[in-house]
């Protein structure tokens, strides 16, 4: 993902990484089934469901921005389309930045607590190698997401795009507002969302 200059390819590799974190949650569940640990602080199923909620709203926000920018640039997905986006569409640049930081696992956003719960469930089951790999993955992803945030705010826009704007229709604005609110609320007000994931995990395990 580090050398990718296409936002679509970046998110393809990013999704593979996030699928890996979900599989770590399944590894925690499998470990608990083989050797139950009553002292485990975080249940693997709860961590997976919370992670899926965080991942859904974060990707909803990011892909809405991608669609809008692509539509404004004639279907382009390269880094050049995002350079200096904060000047052309500040709201979109803000939304994409929040999404990228959440995907990277930066506190206090939803993605941070999603990854924290996954890693906690793995470490509580003494799967230390997986925990170390997951932590290293967080560090690497933080780097390549920051590269794209630099494109949004630091790199000057292309001359042909410098004076162009990106139209945000009312429906897209509603979707982005919901996504931004979820990213922030799941981070700063984690409790209700965690309890929702916990109840859902209990219901699934009772089947």
Q: Count of helices?
A: 8
Order of helices and strands: HHHHHHHH
Q: Quickly give the structural class.
A: mainly alpha
Total number of beta strands = 0
Brief overview:
73% of the residues lie in helices and 0% in strands. By secondary structure, the chain is mostly helical.
List the helices and strands and how they pair.
Layout: H1 7-34, H2 44-72, H3 85-88, H4 90-104, H5 110-124, H6 128-153, H7 170-188, H8 190-205
Helix pairs in contact: 1-2, 1-5, 1-6, 2-4, 2-5, 2-7, 2-8, 4-6, 4-7, 5-6, 5-7, 7-8
What are the key terms here?
207 residues, mainly alpha, 8 helices, 73% helix
Mind explaining what this structure looks like?
The chain is built from eight helices and no strands. The radius of gyration is 18 Å and the shape is elongated. The chain has 207 residues and is mainly alpha-helical. The mean pLDDT is 90.
